[in-house]
Amino acid sequence: MPRKITDLDQLTDRADILLCDVWGVIHNGVNPYPLSVEALKAARERGQTVILITNSPRPAAGVIRQFDTIGVDPACWDDIVTSGDVTRQLVSDAQGGIYFLGPERDISLVEGLDVTLVEPDAADAVLCTGLLDDETESAEDYRALLTDFKARGLPLICANPDRVVERGDRLVPCAGALADIYTEIGGETRIAGKPHAPIYREAMARAEALRGTADKRRTLAIGDGVATDIRGALDNGIDAIFIARGVHAREYLDGRVTNETRLQDFLNAEGVAPAYWMEWLA
């Protein structure tokens, strides 16, 4: 069982750099979590560097706009790295016309890039940022379209590897769920966000630019998604803090209490071993 902690300041001497997830840790897409925001502000005041690392398909400027809208205090972070930021290189490297599959709000991902957006039947590659309407659709609604793309041999660039994300008290599907189907049917996926290495390289580079040095052994990743936040950190040589009251809470909550035996069974089944766990970031 990972060590349970109740306060982030218990690990002040353990880490110089914190790589913190956003959705499910700092906010739920509708409201910020005040204790989490205050915990990160306090960490910065103690001299720790906080890099927010998120699978949002939008560049960091779009995340900041959302923070402004829902009321996340900008004093809780030093820099932000998004999956959208690191996916832009994959888009630039793609050959031919690209079909943009996602809501209009994510189109900023391709702004400033020398790419040609085309209709599905003219595409040489697909850029997926999410479902067109994640409030009413499911990933399975796209299976036929994805099967057609696979039959034509198109690579699918997934800008948000999350499968689901919290929005208020609901879970809504993300681009990662479409990428799962594409992989299942034998299609080629290209991903730079969590849990893959490019986003961690960029986050550590940002931390080094701020601090002058960045040691993974003095870094902790914080997140609530085992397949992205926790597996990504561990695969990239960084210890992790698992936030239990996030996207997986339904797996081990007994009423309002975390059943620690069920939590351990869940982590074992997922094949991850975070160093620490907390109910909430506080």
UniProtKB/TrEMBL annotation:
<dbReference type="InterPro" id="IPR036412">
    <property type="entry name" value="HAD-like_sf"/>
</dbReference>
<dbReference type="Pfam" id="PF13344">
    <property type="entry name" value="Hydrolase_6"/>
</dbReference>
<protein>
    <submittedName>
        <fullName>TIGR01459 family HAD-type hydrolase</fullName>
    </submittedName>
</protein>
<dbReference type="Pfam" id="PF13242">
    <property type="entry name" value="Hydrolase_like"/>
</dbReference>
<keyword id="KW-0378">Hydrolase</keyword>
<dbReference type="InterPro" id="IPR023214">
    <property type="entry name" value="HAD_sf"/>
</dbReference>
<dbReference type="InterPro" id="IPR006357">
    <property type="entry name" value="HAD-SF_hydro_IIA"/>
</dbReference>
<dbReference type="InterPro" id="IPR006356">
    <property type="entry name" value="HAD-SF_hydro_IIA_hyp3"/>
</dbReference>
<dbReference type="GO" id="GO:0016787">
    <property type="term" value="F:hydrolase activity"/>
</dbReference>
